[in-house]
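Convert to structure. Protein one:
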Amino acid sequence: MASSSWKKWPGHVRDKWRDDLRDIDFWFNGYRKTNTYLHLVRQLSRSHHVLWNVGVGPMASFSRAISGMAVEGNPKYRGKHVIKVDLKPTPTAEEAQGIELSLISTKYQLAVAAAMELGLLDQGYNRLKEKHDEIQYYSYGCDKGDITVRLLSYVEYNIVSQIIKQLVNERYLLVAENLQWPIEPGSLTLEDVGLPPPRWLNSQWLISTTSRDVYNKSKSNIDGVISIDEDDQVAVLILFSLHQSAEHILNMMRQESKEYWHHIALQCFHYAMAIFTKHAQVAAITSDELIHHWVAEGILPCMAIKEEEETSTVNSKCSNMHRLGRVIVEAFQKYSLLQLPFSPANDAYEATNTGTQFIAYHDLIAEGITADELFDNRKQMISFTGDHGCHVSREWLSLEENMGATALVLRGCSHQSVILPKLDHLLPNLCFLLVLDLSYTPLKLLPSYIGCLQKLRLLSLRGCHDLKTLSSSSTTNAIDSSTNISSSSPLSTLYNLEFLDMNGVPVSVMTQDVANQKGNLIHLDMSHSEISTFPHNFFADMSNLEELMLTSCSNLVELPPSMASLSSLTTLEVTRTRIKYFPQMIFEEMQKLQSLKLIHNKKLISLTGPISGFQIIKLEGHPNIVSFMLIGTPHIRGFSVRGCRKLESVEIKDVSGLEEIDLSGTSIKELPDEIPNLPQLRRLLLGGVPSLRRFPWHRLVRLPDVFYLDHCSEGNGNHSNQVSHVCVTDPRFFRSFTDTTVNLVRDGLFFQSFYIQVKPCITNSMRLQDEESRLDKKGELLRNQSTYVDVYNSYFTKEIAIASPITVPLHRTERHVDITGMQERHDGLYDLLKVTKSLSVTCDTSIDEFYYLSSITELEECELSWCHKMEVLFRWHSPTNLRNMHVCNLKNLVWFCSQYSSCDFSTLEHLHLEDCPRLEHVVLHGTSLPCLKTLDILFCYNLKTIFFSNNTQVNIYGLPSIQRIRLQELPLLQHFDNKDALITAPVWKELHIRGCWSLRRLPCRQGCLPKTVKVNGERSWWSKLQWRSPLHLDSYDPKLPPEFASFDERAEMSSYLR
C-alpha cells in the first residue's frame, strides 16, 4: 500500500481516541468494545481460504498483532486445530556458512509445526532431531553427514503421511508468521507438508509476510489480503500489541501474572512516550539509558528471571533490573511498539512503523507544556526538545498521589532553549524529581540548585562536552562561563543518587566531595573524561556501586586504592587508558565482580601492582567473575584466571605478545578460536574445564607447544612440556576435527605429539582406588613369602595394566589415544584417529565392530581390552601400518578377521590375543603376514584353528618372520589351520604350549630348515602328538619339564608362561 492511499485521520476521531486513552480500563479491555475493534475482527474473518497478512505501513508492522487478533477473535471459524509457526528468517550468504538450509525451509517448518500441534512428533523424530542438533553443535555446523537427509526423509515419509491422515477430514487454521521470501503459489502441496488444501473443508491459512513484495510474488488470484489503511485501526493494534508484550514478558520471567506485567509494560510505554516526541533528538537514546530511566522512576521491580535466580549466587539490583528491562525492550521491538534508535515520523504513513512513532506523531498521549507549567502537580514526566515541551501525566499509572514532576528530560536542549537558562530558578520547586536528564546540553557549569534535589536517583550529563568542571555557578546562568564558580560541587549533596552518567563530560579533576556519601550509587559512567587521577579515597563511600565504566579515558594513568571498597561491583570496564597496573588487592575485595573488560590499555602490564620482569594479568580464584575481556594490551605476556569457578566467557584479541594463558578451573563454555591461534602463544592450560564441550579444531592454524586440556581434574593436573595432553569425557569433543585439520597435522603445522584420553571422570578416581587396593594386596602377598609369589606377582601386575614380561608391550607413540569406559559410540573420533599412531581402548561397551580402524592409515600400535560388545575386529580391511596388536578380554569376539575380509597385515610384527572365550578363528590363509615375529594366543577356549580357509586347494601358508608362538589354555584347538597345510617359517625359534590338549599335530615346515624349533609343553601332550614323517618330528626340539614335575599336568593354569 502506498502512502498516498493512507486515509487521513479525522480530527474529531483522533480527539475521541485521545480522550479514551486517558482511561486505564480502556488500555486493558475497553478498546475491545469500540466499533474499530469489532470492525477489524470482522475484517479478519473474511471467507478467503488463504488470507495474507502484510502488516501495516512501509515496514509491514503489527503483523503479529493482526495474526493474534485473527486467532483470538474468531474461535468458531478457526476449526479444531490451530497450527502456529514462526518461520525462521533465511540467513544471508555469510550467515549461511555451516547452516543446513533445508531444515529452515518453509515446507519443513510447516510440516513440523503441524505435527507438533497434532502430537505427531514421535520418539523417532525426536531422536533424529536431537542427534542432528548435537552434531551441528559439536561440529560448529561443519559436519556434512547424512543425519540431515535422514531427518528430512523421516519427516517426509513418516510424519507427513500421519498429518494427512489426521487432517484430511478435519477443519483447521494455519497461522504462519514472518515469511521472508516468496513462495510459488500452490507449492505447499499435500505431499510436501501434509496440510490438505484449505478449500477442502473450509479451513483457512493466514500467512504473514515481512513485506508487501513477498505477498505480491506469492499470492494466487483467489487469495485475500488484510488491508489496514486507517489510523484508528493502528491504534487498536497498538493496544493489542501491549497485551502480547505482557504475555511475552510473563513467559520470560515466569513470575507474577499477565495483568501484572501488562501494567508494568504500560508504564514503561508511557514513560517512553514522554521521551520520544515528534521532534528529532540531538542524540539517540540507547536501550541502557531508557532502562536506567525506568529503574530510577521506580517502574521496574527488582526481580530476577526465574532460571537465573536459581543458579546465581550474586544478588545484583542493577543486573536484575537490566535483565528485566531488556526483556521489556525486546517485547516492544518484537511487537512493533518501539524501535531503537528512535526517529520521529515525517508523515502519517511512516508513523505506522512503530507504536511510539504513531502515538508521538498524533500527540495521543503526551501533551504540550510550557516552562511556566512545570510546577503543576499533575505534570509527572516532562521533557523538552528546544522550546517544545511535553508531559505524560496519567494519575492511574501510579497508586500514589501525584506530588509533582518526577522526571525532567532536557536532552539536547540548545542555547536558545527557554528552560535551560532558568534551571536554577526552576529546580528548587521540583523537589520530587527522581530523574534529571541534562544530556547533550551546552552546560558549562552545573546549576547550583541541583544539590537541592534530595530525592534524585538519576542524573545524566552524558554528552555535555562543554562541562569541564563539576562545580556550580553562583549566578542564574549555567551556560555562561563568565559567572563566579563555587569551590564545591552540587553533586556532593545528592545522597540518594543511584545513576550518575557523565559519559563524554571532559572533566580533568574530580574532587572528593563529589563522591562523599554516595552509598546508594549503583551505576557510574565516566567514559571519555579527561581525568588523569582520582582522589585517594574517591570510591570509599561507594560500597553499593555495581557498575563502573571508564571507557576511553585517555589521560587516566592511575586508579586509587579506595577501589578496594567497591565490594558490590559486578561490572568494570577500563578501556583506552594509560594505566600500567591496578591497585593491589582490589580484586580480592571485589568478590561480586562478574564482568571485567580491559580493552586497548596499551601500557597495562599487571593487575596486581607494580612489578618487574614477566608482565602478567592474574586474577586467580575469584568466586563470581563470569566474563573477562582482554583486548589490545601488547605488553602482556601472561594471562591467568585459574580457579575462577564461575567464569563462563573469555575474549582475548589483539594481544600479540601473549605467551601463556591459564584458564584452568573455570566454567568456560566456548573457547574463541583467536586464543589458540595467538601468534606468540607457547602455553595454553585448560585443566578442570568440564563445561567446555567443544573445541574449534577446524579453525586452527597453529597450536601452542604446551597444550593441556582436562575435563576431569580440578585445575591442578600434571601436564608435559613436550606432548599436548587432552583428557575429555566425550568423544564428540573432536567432532570439528575435520579433513582440513588432518592435513595441517600431516603437514607438520601443529599437534605433532599428543596424548589424548577419552573417558568418564569417574573412571579416573575408581581406577586409582582399584589400583591402590590391588597394590596393597600385592604387598601383603609379598610379605607372606608365598611359594608361588612370582605367579601372584604376575597376576596382580597384569591387573594394574603392566604387561607380562614375555609379551611385547604396547608402545605409546608420540601420537597416542586412550579410550576408556565409553558407553556410547565414538562419534567424533573418526578424523582424529587418521593421525593417531597408537591406540588403546579399554572397558568399552559401545562398539560391536572396530569399523573405522580400516581408515587409520598411520596406526602402528593398538590395544583392545574389556570391550565385551565387540564381535569382529576387521570386517573388510585392516590398517596398513599396524605393527603391534594386543586383544584382551573381549568376551564376545568371534572373528579377528571376517571370513569375507581382504585384510593385509603387511607390517604387523606382534599379535597378542588373550581371554577371548568365543573366538573361533584368527586369520584367513591368504592374509599377508610377512613381518609377524611373535604370536600369543591365551585363554581362548573356543578357538579351533588359527588359520582357516574355505579353499580346498590351499596347502601352504607362510610366516617368513615368525620367531615365537605362544599358545595357552586353548582346549579345542586341533590344528594350526583347518587344511593341515605346510608352513614356511625359516626363522621360527620357539613354541610355548600349555593346556592345548586337543592339539594333535604341529605344522609341517617346508623347505631347508637351518634350525629346529624349541618346544616347551607338557610331557603327556608331547607324547600324543602325531607326525607325518621323521623329518617332521626332527624339525622340533622338545624342552619338556622333568618327569617328577609332570604328575598333574592337567591342573588349570592361571599364571603366564615363563
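Protein two, convert as well:
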Amino acid sequence: MPMTPFVHLHVHSNYSPMSGVSSVEELCAETQAHGADALALTDTNGLYGAIRFIEVAKRTGLKPILGAELTHHHHRATLLATSMTGYTNLCRLLSARHCDDDFDLIEAVSHSHHDLIVLSDEIPALTAWKKRKRQNVYVELTPGAMMHQAVAFSRRSGIPPVATNRVQFVRPDQFHLHHVLRAIALKTTLSRLPAGAACSPHHWLTPTAVLEPHYTHVPHALLNARRIADRCHTEWNFKDSVTQAFRDMIEPHTVSTLQAKTYEGARWRYGNISKKVQDRIETELDVIQSKGFARWFLIVQDIVQQAPRTCGRGSAAASIVSYCLGITHVDPIRHNLFFERFLNAGRQDPPDIDIDFPWDERDRILDYVFTKYGTRRTAMVANHNTLSFRSAIREVARVYGLPPVELNRVIPRLVREVEFHEPPTKPAFASWAESLCQTMGMTEPWPAIISIALQLEGCLRTLGVHCGGVIIAPDEIHRHVPIQIASKGVPIIQWEKDQAEDAGLVKLDILGNRSLAVIRDTLDAVTRHTGCPLNEDTWDPVSDSRTQALIRDSDTIGCFYVESPATRLLLKKLWTTLSEKQPSELEIFEYLVMVSSLVRPAGNPYNRDFVLRAHGEPHQPVHQEFEQVLADTHGIMVYQEDVTRVAMAVAGFSVEEADQLRKILSKKHKERQLHDYKAQFDRGARAHGASDQAVTTMWNMIMSFSGYSFCKPHSASYAQVSYQSAYLRAHYPAEFMAAVVSNQGGFYAPSVYLSEARRMGLAILPPDINTSHWKYTGTDKAIRMGLMQIRGLKAESIEQVLAERANHGPFRSFQDFLIRTKHGQAQIRLLIKAGCFDHIAGEVTRPGLLWRLHAYHEQQRFGHPLQDTPSCHASSALPIPPDYSPLQHLQHEIESFGFPLSQHPLALHAEAVRGLNAVSARDMKEHMGHAITMIGWMITEKSVRTKHQEPMEFITFEDLTGLYEATLFPKVYRRFGHLLTNHGPYILEGTVEEEFQTYSLIVKNVRTLTGDIPPRLAVTPAPHQSQTKRFSPEKI
C-alpha cells in the first residue's frame, strides 16, 4: 500500500560514543533527500548532540524528535519525549543511569511514565513493563533474523509494534566504519571483535521503499512510527525555560539588594558618583532586571569575593554593574566599553561571565561553589573528546593488527606529510589516501587505514571536563540537561560549551590564571623584603613611566599575555615611530588593548597594515561607513564588536542578526550558516554602495574572527593584568622573575626565563639546603632556585626540610641534616647531586658526601647513631674523594633540573661553534640584507598556513647573547622541518630582513649542530609550548 515517508525513530549519530558513524548534518541531509519531514536522534545513553541536532534539523526543514537509547547491563530501551515534561524526565533518567550505582533500567522506566514513549525489542523488559501497566510502550521491530520473535511477542502480549531500523550509519557502505569503531572501543583487532559487539550491515538510514517490504505482514508497525512521530514534541526552545526559571527564583529583595551593592561599589570605585555613572548604572540595572538575571550577578559576586585577586574578563568587563560589584576591574566609562556587547534587551543569550583566579586557588573556589550551591544545581561543562586524525590513524592501524614498531615508524612521517597535502572532502578520501600512499611508497593496508581515519575524525570518544565552565542552574540542573560523573569525579553536563550556551544555560567560567599567582607572589615577596606593602587601592601601573617604557621596548618576557614572540614583535614594530609622537598614557594602554586583540590566528594578515596606518601611512578607504566605524583602529577590524558594528553600518544587519553573525564565527560548525550570512552581507553592502572588491575585502576581514578572537572589554581586562605584570618586572625584577619561574606554565620553559633574568642583570643561584624554599626566591640582584625544581624530589621531602628548618633553625652541617631529618637515601642523593649541601659541607666534596651518607645509614642499620661532632667532618677517618669534573657537574645539573644551570646549553658546544664564523643575535641587525650563519637553541615554534594553505613556521631561537626570530617559508619548511624535533642546537643559514626596525632571519638551510659533548649531556625535551596542530591555524 502507498506510504507516507517513513520516520526513523531509532537513530544514532557520531555522538553515540564509539558506535555511531554519521554526523547530524549527514543524517538530516539524507533524511530530507528521502522526503521525510521528521527525524529522531536517540544516541546511546545521552543527549550529547541534542542542541546541535535541533539546530541542523530546523535548518534542513525537519522536525527534530529528541530521545535516547538507554542501555544498562543486558537491558536496553529507546525513549522519546512527547513534551518538555517528557524531556525533563528523560534527562533525569539519563542522569540516574550515569550517577546512581543502584540504577535499574526496568524499574526506572516503569516509574518515569510521564510523556515518554518506550521502544524495545527486549522481551523480559517488555513483559515487566506490561505487568506494571506501563503505558506508551511499543515492541520495536527491526529487520533481521530475530524480528519474527518480536512480531510474535507483540501479537501474544497485545503491546503494539513499531518499525525502526536502529540506524548507526547513513549508507550501507559505512558499516565497516562502525565495525572499526567498535574494535577501537573494545581494544581489539577486527578479526577478534566478538560477535554481537557491532550492529548488522542493514542498520543504515533506509528510505521508505527499501524498508516497506520487510513489514508487509505487520503494516501497522510502519503506521505506528508515523503516529509516534506526530505525538513527539518538536518545537524546542530551551532558553525560555532556563530564563523563566531564573525569573521564578528572584525574591522580592533581590533587585533592591543588587542595586544597593552596586551603588556601594560605585562609591568605592569612583568616590563621588557623577550623573554619567548613575545613568549608566540605572540603564544596566533595568536591563538586568528585565532579563531576570539579578540573582545571577549576586551569585557571581559571592564567588568572586572568595579570593582577594581575580580578573573578570570577557564581555562582562563592559558592565559598570560588574565593575562596581568587584566582578571586573576595568572602568567601562574611562575605556569607552559598551554594555550592549554583554547584555541588551534584544539579546537572547544569557550573560556569560569569565573569572580568572590564581591557578593554585581555582580548586578551592570550585569546592566552594559545589559546597554552597550543591551538585543538585551545579555541574561542570563537558569537553567532547573526539577522534582526531592523528589518534584515529593510530587506533585504526591497531585494529588492523599492525605492530607498534611500525606505527611509531610510519605515523610521524604520515602526519607530517599530510601537512603538505590538505585532505579533500569526504567523497574523495579513498582516492586521496591512495595517492598519498603512492607518494610515500606505502602499500596496503595503509591507504584503507588513512581513508577510514579521515572519516572517523570527529566521532565522540569520551567526555572530559572543560577547563573552567561551571553551570549553576536556577533549579535542579538535571531538569535541563543530563549529568554524568567525569573520570576526575566531578559532575559534568553532557554538552560542551557551545551547546550549553545555545540551550540558554548560564555559564560561569572559573579559570586558573598563572599570572595572577605571579602578581600575588611578587607582591607578597616585596612586602616581606621591604616591610612596606604596595597600596593596591592607589596602584596605577598605567601611569607609571618605567612600565610604559618597558612595554614600548617590548621587554615583556614573563608579562601576562604580551610575552609571546608575535606580540613582542608587533609591539616593537608599533612603537618604532609612535614613541616619537609621545602618546598619552591612555593611548599607550589603548594600543596595548588593540595589540592583545590583533594577535589571533587569523588576524596576522592585517597586522602590517595596522602598523603602517598607526605610523601615519595613507591608505585607500575600503568604504565610507566601514572607515567611520573603524576610525579608532585605523580602518582595521580588531575587536569582536567590530563585526557587529560593520555588519550593521555597512550591510544593514539588525542588532540581533549582527550579534548572531559574531557568535557563529566562534563556533565549530558554522559553514552552512556563514554561507547564508555572507549572501546577506553581500546584498546589504552592495545596497550601501560597496564595490565587489570592497565587499570581498570587508568579508575577508570579518572571517579573520573565525574561531579565536576577543571583544574589547576582554582585551582591556587582559591589558590591565599585563600592565601590572610589566610594572612588577620594571620595579622588582628579581621577585617578579622568581615568581614567574615558580608558577610554571608560562609561554616559555623555566630555562628561558632564567636566561632572560641573566640578561636583566640577575644572578641565578643554585638550590641551597638552608636558603632555598619550595619556590624560587628573588631578592636584590639574585634569584635562588627553589627545591621544587629538583627532579624526583618528593613534596613530602621538601615539606620536611622546610618544617625542620622553621622549627629548629638552619642545618649546621651535612651530619646535622642527617640526624634531624628522616629522608631515604635516594632522596638525599638527589639533594647532594643538585648541590644543596655545598655551602655547609666544608671541604667535603659531593662524592665525599655520598660516602658519608652511606656510612651514616650503615651505622643506623647496626644501631650506632651518628653524632654531630668534629670527628664526623672532613677530619674524620672517611676519605674525601676528588670532586666531580666540570662536565660531570653539568650532567648532574641537567639530570637534576632538566637544563644546565651554571651556563647556557650552547656553552657546551663552544668548540664546535668556534669555527663557524656565526653571527650573534645581538649583532644580526648589523648584517641586514646579507646571508649569514647563526647558531640557535630553539625556544618556541609556531606553525601556520599561508593563504595557499601551505605550512610554514615561525621559530624563536636563543644564543648566548639573546633571542632572535627566524622564519621558514613553505619550501624550506618542507625540506628541513623534520629536523626541528627538539631544542637543538641548530646551525641556521639565511638572510637578515628588517621591518619597522625589527630583524629576523629568513632561513634557507638548517643543520643540526653536532659537537664535542657526550650524548648524555644532550638536552632533548621537545620545545616548550610547541604549537603545531593538525589542519587549522594555531592559537598564539
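The chain is about 45% helix and 15% strand. The CA atoms of residues 635 and 869 lie 78 Å apart.
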